[in-house]
Give the backbone structure.
Amino acid sequence: MSETRYIFVTGGVTSSLGKGILASSLAKLLQARGYSVTIQKLDPYINVDPGTLNPYEHGECYVTNDGAETDLDLGHYERFLNVPTSQANNVTTGRIYQSVINKERRGDYLGKTVQIIPHITDEIKRKIKFLGTKQKYDIVVTEIGGTVGDIESLPYIETVRQLKWELGNRALVIHLTLVPYLAASGELKTKPTQHSVKALLEAGVQPDVLVLRTERDLDISLRRKVALFCNVELDAVVQSIDVKTIYEVPNKMKEEKLDTTVLRKMGLPLKDEPELKAWNEFLDRLKNPKWEIEIGLVGKYVELADSYKSICEALIHAGSENCCRVKLRMIHSESITAENVDKKLEGLKGIIIAPGFGHRGIEGKIETARYVRENNIPFFGICLGMQIAVIEFARNVLHMADADSTEMNEKTSFPVIDLMEEQKGITEKGGTMRLGSYKCKIIDKKSNIYKAYEKTEVKERHRHRYEFNDQYLAEFEEAGMKAVGLNPDTNLVEVIEIPSLKWFVGVQFHPEYSSTVLTPHPLFVAFVKASIGA
Ligand code: GLN
């Protein structure tokens, strides 16, 4: 294709309207028409990446193959497009300023006053165009975090203004707003949208397309009114009605012809009708399940579902693959004790112990691991969840009374989980873990993971500092917990299983990050299958 096109998605009226899902759905339709598309998120906060953010504030930290700690929206991009993202797909204000300040310190600006315009905006432009010029995508969709009118988003909106001027119809702005329904007067209201577009216009940006989130269908007269007040064409006023699952949104956007409107405005051929056969089969299975089971997720950030976004989505993918509706019970690990564990976990067909950091809620997780082992309930331990299974086994089977991870207790007599050699001496927290994709060799063909992957070598993403301490490996194996996956380069234990149980698997990596609609993760598929059979 000739030259890359740039689509910007901005948000107005309120946050949490689903810019990420809208960007993903539009990108999905364009991809399904035969274009190569990628999505990028620009985050207005000053953290260099979300790796140091508490999940309560910003949801899960997503990790890419190349080891970038990113916003959770990148997870949606991968789940929808089935194409991996990288560091270049997530840029924060902190990262922009960091590189501008580094250049200033090196003297690159030759004595000039360094300013938001043009230095910060030029840096933002470089990060946007990089995906088009260097990675050669036909279309780059850039989602601007935050809401129009925020002080923090201003440099990004200013950059969009400049790019629209520079690129003409090769740049397009989609503004997502809310049309609330007022029950008292029985009316849908467009005023917040009008105000939001006004705020964009004040910053010099005229949106090309408006997508209106709504609980009820928007009729033609309301659409006309919005078109008139906001200077957009009638067919560029698109409704995004609430749906049961985010995976419905591409179809909804197709019904509204968002993809064709966007292509026409950018002067691109429509190509083929979107190919969504496999996608719709996935949806069909999701909506017409043969089974229903309840799975428990034991973690410490359960009040906010976004904290475990990728796990929740991976279970949906695996559920559909098994024609099963997976109901998720989120259980706070701090609420679990030896006395109440059976009550708390009653009725669950499978249990996941979630990833995590720090000692809060650890004892409840250890009680959970004991309960699933003793009751032979399908168990999936992810990262910290695997480490917990190891600690529990050490304490209750190997009689190492104070066995622990040195993350929780530096003075333990049995450091069965310990700091990795290369982590010792690191004091900085941001970006200093074992991050990104590493190989894992599956060494036991009778293992559950071999049956799931049907491969002897896989690659999975990591995000952790601690590891299984293989000094103790022989003792564990003798007592019945086996290392079935190893890192082929370092021999680090990546996967443990208890072969005498139905399905007891702990993985040091994060399989949830690479589960997508069209390629559900084999371990989640196998876990759900085992749970159905339980
Ligand atoms: N806190 C553990 C570690 O750093 C586990 C991390 C995780 O679950 N992502 O090794």
User: Anything to note?
Assistant: The two ends are 52 Å apart (CA to CA). The pocket of glutamine is lined by residues 355-357, 383-384, 407, 463-466 (CB under 6 Å).
